[in-house]
Design brief:
Elements lengths: L1 H33 L4 H4 L2 E12 L3 E12 L2 H21 L8 E15 L2 E17 L5 H10 L4 E8 L4 H26 L3 E12 L4 E4 L22 E13 L1
Antiparallel strand pairs: 1-8, 2-4, 2-5, 3-4, 5-7, 6-8
Length: about 250
């Protein structure tokens, strides 16, 4: 009788462990089923891509203004450069009402300059360069700003680009179009292949927002006269925001 009880306990323990083991296997199977990107699932899925494109009008212009000067001593070069760039920044704030948060110094460098005579290096002076990134929110001001840069003798002007300051709404619209295009393509492929689409397993996207660029260089201007050749007329145009969505569908 005692042996029977012992055997019964052993059987109950064994059955309990078996139930737990099967439960763990079931949970693992569910996890594997739900896991995105596993190789076994990919053998029963399809990848499709769709493109969505919207057009927006730029509402800001970015440009970099700078001045590079060479003098016999560091102090002379620094003084000249500082006076020039301080004048530029003052005009930007006073005449064009550019907010201080939209003017950012991105470079300030001092470097010695040498001459080579008969294989010998001779120090001839020092070069000081300073550049600021400028964000222009009133687009009609850009021509005047470029003209001002020439009049003040700036010799480093470039990187002009037209951008949309807050493109999130347009990106969302382009994304919606891209996903819709991908969905329609997936339905067409599934119909041809004779299969049914299940859930979306994975999703990724790439965006493209090209900005037209304009570059100018006033280095050849006669800075002693303080005259420029006149700023060009800048046309803002439009920007295209493109989203390419790649969607992976489960095949049933």
């Amino acid at each position: 009788m005692e042996n029977y009880k012992t055997l019964k306990v052993f059987i109950n323990v064994f059955l309990g462990m078996a139930v737990i083991y099967l439960a763990v296997l079931s949970l693992n199977a569910i996890k594997i089923r739900d896991y995105i990107g596993v190789s076994e699932e990919q053998r029963h899925s399809i990848f499709v891509s769709g493109e969505g494109e919207v057009t927006g009008v730029p509402d800001i212009i970015k440009v970099q203004l700078g001045y590079r000067v060479e003098k016999r001593t560091v102090s002379e070069a620094q003084s000249d450069n500082t006076d020039k760039m301080n004048s530029v920044i003052k005009k930007l704030k006073d005449d064009f009402k550019i907010d201080a948060k939209d003017i950012k110094t991105v470079n300030y460098s001092i470097s010695p300059q040498y001459n080579w005579d008969d294989g010998r290096q001779t120090l001839r002076g020092y070069q000081v360069s300073q550049n600021v990134d400028l964000k222009v929110r009133d687009l009609e001001q850009i021509n005047g700003i470029l003209d001002m840069a020439g009049e003040l003798g700036l010799n480093q002007v470039g990187g002009l680009s037209f951008e949309i300051d807050n493109p999130e709404e347009l990106e969302a619209e382009a994304r919606e179009k891209a996903i819709k295009a991908a969905k329609e393509k997936a339905k067409a492929l599934a119909k041809v292949a004779g299969v049914k689409l299940g859930r979306i397993i994975s999703f990724s996207e790439n965006s493209n927002q090209p900005s037209p660029l304009y570059r100018a260089n006033y280095a050849t201007m006669d800075m002693n006269e303080g005259k420029s050749g006149g700023a060009p007329t800048i046309e803002v145009g439009s920007n295209q925001i493109t989203i390419i969505a790649t969607v992976e569908y489960e095949i049933l």
